[in-house]
């Protein structure tokens, strides 16, 4: 039972983090407009309602699909991979210095 409680807490934090990130990406003002509430309501939800809803979703075993996380990680890795730019000249055209 303790394992399931701990697992639910971990999953709830993950879900809450995902929800907060999605709100941040979309913008609190835009989310409020689409839901039909004031922007201040979204701020209040972040503090009180969202953690409870995240725990409920964790208990119901809802979450971000692992395939989505893997796909997102690959996209981030592709963006962050530093690629060497091709040389503008051939090796024979470059300057060499002998001391």
UniProtKB/TrEMBL annotation:
Protein's recorded name: Bacteriophage CII protein
One example of a Gene Ontology biological process annotation: regulation of DNA-templated transcription
Pfam short name (any one): Phage_CII
SUPFAM superfamilies cross-referenced by the UniProt entry: lambda repressor-like DNA-binding domains
Molecular function as annotated in GO: DNA binding
Origin organism lineage: Bacteria, Pseudomonadati, Pseudomonadota, Gammaproteobacteria, Enterobacterales
